[in-house]
Write a sequence for this structure.
């Protein structure tokens, strides 16, 4: 499954939550919480997450029990963990009211083929979602979104090198930084 196919499937999941009264910003936030757990499993980096709050445990619940467990998981990971996990989940809460919608999102994410996402990284997935939002709605995120083609051209013109520091003070989707990283990887063995 290509990165673009994953983005399309994730975008379609957004429609489920829109019916639940969730804004696009809330959707991306909810998706971050859920995807972080899934990608930790896929990349075998779940060590920082307590076993009782890992992906497999989350997928073992359904209905109202899933909703209760998910809220408990968010609170626990935000208060009782360290490092990146705590940073992601600190102050986290869920805006999903319907347990069936939460369940559908988790099951759909669980069924996706994550091979290309592991290869390319989550940054490109998020950027793809933001691009879809900008294309569908010429306001909000669209005002600040720089198309990938323009980002890549600007990166080639700047031609970042191994060991140089890159900075994007107006960083929104992290697109310039992802492009710079891809560029440096393409010109070196590092």
């Amino acid at each position: 499954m290509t990165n673009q196919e994953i983005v399309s499937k994730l975008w379609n999941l957004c429609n489920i939550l829109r019916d639940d009264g969730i804004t696009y910003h809330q959707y991306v936030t909810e998706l971050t919480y859920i995807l972080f757990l899934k990608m930790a499993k896929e990349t075998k980096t779940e060590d920082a997450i307590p076993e009782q709050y890992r992906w497999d445990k989350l997928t073992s619940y359904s209905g109202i029990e899933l909703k209760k467990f998910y809220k408990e998981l968010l609170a626990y990971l935000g208060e009782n963990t360290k490092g990146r996990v705590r940073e992601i989940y600190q102050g986290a809460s869920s805006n999903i009211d319907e347990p069936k919608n939460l369940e559908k999102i988790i099951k759909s994410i669980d069924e996706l083929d994550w091979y290309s996402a592991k290869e390319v990284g989550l940054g490109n997935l998020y950027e793809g979602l933001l691009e879809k939002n900008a294309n569908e709605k010429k306001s909000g995120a669209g005002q600040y979104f720089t198309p990938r083609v323009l980002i890549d051209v600007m990166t080639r013109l700047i031609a970042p090198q191994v060991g140089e520091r890159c900075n994007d003070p107006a960083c929104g989707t992290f697109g310039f930084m992802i492009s710079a990283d891809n560029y440096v990887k393409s010109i070196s063995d590092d």
In short: The chain has two domains: 3-122, 146-187. Residues 24-42 form the longest helix (19 residues). The two ends are 27 Å apart (CA to CA). The chain is about 65% helix and 0% strand.
